[in-house]
Amino acid sequence: MTTETTSARARPMGVEQRQDMIIGVVIPLILEHGRDLTSKQIAEACGIAEGTIFRAFGDKDTLIKAAVDRYLDPLALRTSLRSIDHDLSLDDKLKAVFGLLRERFTGVIRMMSALGTPGPPPGRRAPDTHEFAVVVGELLAPHADELRITPEQVAQFARVVAFASAIPAFGESIPFTTDELLDLFKHGVMEG
Fold first, then answer.
1. pLDDT confidence tier of residue 171, bands split at 50, 70 and 90
2. What is the sign of the dihedral through the CA atoms of 109, 115, 117 and 123?
3. Which of 71, 89, 106 is the C-terminal boundary of a domain?
4. Is the full-model pTM beyond 0.70?
5. Are 116 and 35 in contact (CB under 8 A)?
6. Are 67 and 90 found together in one domain?
7. Dihedral (CA of 146, 185, 92, 152) sign
8. Which of 18, 41, 60, 69 lies in the 20 to 30 Å Cα band around 138?
9. 28, part of any domain
10. pLDDT tens for each residue of 67-76
11. Which long-range contacts (CB under 8 A, 24 or more apart) does 175-180 make?
12. How far apart are CA 168 and CA 176, in angstroms?
């Protein structure tokens, strides 16, 4: 009679899976430590050997760039915006859009500050703000008669206000809650 034994060893990850896992762990580490993050800290947080990091990415700068690229990718924001319930009232839709934008821009500013980058990361292309305006415009289109401006213009104004409120020099001197900013914003874009 033979007995089957099972190995406690985890199934090996492919290169892309390993890179994905490492990036997911590195993002919060970058936000905490900035560029001072060490490969030893990364390895410990990931539960892997330092050599694994270098086999997966070549060097720490390449890993940091990949993590920043993922963090700044607008796809997550667009997906969240598309998931806003289309049956909500205009007020609730604007609140959801505004909340997502403030969260996004606060994170972007935090990442840039952690890296000591005064502007967009080098080599990063300009964001496609047109697609953002289209997504929000589609969400707000059923309420066009309640707006003084087009839904796409509402999207761009919300983007500007949310971005400005995420910049510490503007958002921390006299802090505003999302509800306070939204209230001010709505009265500028809604009829009567």
1. low
2. negative
3. 71
4. yes
5. yes
6. no
7. positive
8. 69
9. yes
10. 999 999 999 9
11. 178/95, 178/98, 178/99, 178/102, 179/95
12. 12
